[in-house]
Amino acid sequence: xxxxxxxxxxxxxxxxxxxxxxxxxxxxxxxxxxxxxxxxxxxxxxxxxxxxxxxxxxxxxxxxxxxxxxxxxxxxxxxxxxxxxxxxxxxxxxxxxxxxxxxxxxxxxxxxxxxxxxxxxxxxxxxxxxxxxxxxxxxxxxxxxxxxxxxxxxxxxxxxxxxxxxxxxxxxxxxxxxxxxxxxxxxxxxxxxxxxxxxxxxxxxxxxxxxxxxxxxxxxxxxxxxxxxxxxxxxxxxxxxxxxxxxxxxxxxxxxxxxxxxxxxxxxxxxxxxxxxxxxxxxxxxxxxxxxxxxxxxxxxxxxxxxxxxxxxxxxxxxxxxxxxxxxxxxxxxxxxxxxxxxxxxxxxxxxxxxxxxxxxxxxxxxxxxxxxxxxxxxxxxxxxxxxxxxxxxxxxxxxxxxxxxxxxxxxxxxxxxxxxxxxxxxxxxxxxxxxxxxxxxxxxxxxxxxxxxxxxxxxxxxxxxxxxxxxxxxxxxxxxxxx
Length: 484
Ligand code: HEM
Fold this sequence. Notes:
The protein has 484 residues and is α+β, with helices and mostly antiparallel strands. 53% of the residues lie in helices and 11% in strands. The protein has a single domain (37-478), classed as CATH 1.10.630.10. The strands form four sheets. Strands 1-2-8-5-3 form a five-stranded mixed beta sheet. The chain has a three-stranded antiparallel beta sheet with strand order 4-12-9. Helix 14 packs antiparallel against helix 16 (343-355). Bound molecules: protoporphyrin IX containing FE. Protoporphyrin IX containing FE binds at residues 102, 126, 130, 133, 137, 287-288, 291-292, 295-296, 299, 358-359, 362, 420-422, 426-430, 433-434.
């Protein structure tokens, strides 16, 4: 219903948009050696091909047809240069902030941010806050949250896994990821309060990449409304917390150990003593929720898929995790020292991130004409780096379809070839959080159950992240000797 409404609206608006675009669009870039490729159809560009082929095939076919270094396409209504291979990644990661700046599709900005922010410069906002996010999400800062991650993971196993013979991993991983974020970011653990945030949040994630037509009934319209509701609730939470912190300060009571990320954001000051505004904090929290939700859930899901499919890999992980479990009492929670012992498990998780990367890549915009591999990328073009130009490329990963965690032993993959979290100054600030969440979850599943795919032929499709169409149903076979 929703899809057909969106489709009809698109068709209705197409003739108007077409004539406008044909009038407004600059035809090519005469006289400049721009990257080879195709702009596809007017208005729709190569969006349809991208959706039909999936990102991996779309990129591979164009690298073969146009250039293995950089090719042009038109997606999301923009002229775009897709940079490929280790050299392409290196160019984009090392030139960020020099000849490139951040760029996000309009539909995403409108669903996620306060109007004040998308009307003004998103670039300034993120530049101000990026360093701070890296600071509060760095390993030393996250160590204290490992027991809380383990504790929530155990609750989740007891409530949603143990009572069932078969579970659907992807939806459960999403529930867990969202609940964990609510607890660690804002100390929210009441299920009703989590639902108050998760219901509108799902409207945002379901609609932010849809056709940006803001009319009643469209997914995009619901995403904008959902975004407004999430922001309103976050503002209530942030204002209440600011008051609590001020009261704490007045009473001069000792700061509680292990503050959550919200309190850290409220207390941080830049070198001039400026604090983050409530809107900036709300933008940060919603940005972290969106950036972590699908990606980390997909990462957890595909690790478990590989463990179910590959018994020898499962056995290796089980051995490592049971050695850790044996050193602990029944109620003793995981610590940083335990995580540091999970070396093979992390290699397995990394190989899973290589084979089924949760994020496809990221956009930038050129701030000046620039040259790469003999081609000119004009000022104002959008650029895209993508995991799909290296992760399955036999030049960097021999026998690329083979699942082989030993690729990460020793010096590991060559620089700029393994990029699930990006690279350079904009590399994902949540990569350590994701690592901890995945490892803690692996520990809790593997030490309890053996896994069997309920449908080994289930299809995988690409939404924002790779998604098993049935949610990855797996049969749980509990280990007899493990007690909760
Ligand atoms: C397996 C899970 C994850 C994957 C694969 C992933 C991947 C990525 C990628 C590829 C980018 C874009 C980098 C670029 O622009 O070049 C990114 C950005 C970002 N990620 Fe993650 N991410 C994950 C989990 C998380 C988590 C758990 C958080 C927060 C707790 C997070 C927060 C962010 C933020 C805030 C950005 C934007 C950074 C900026 O623009 O400067 N991510 N992530």
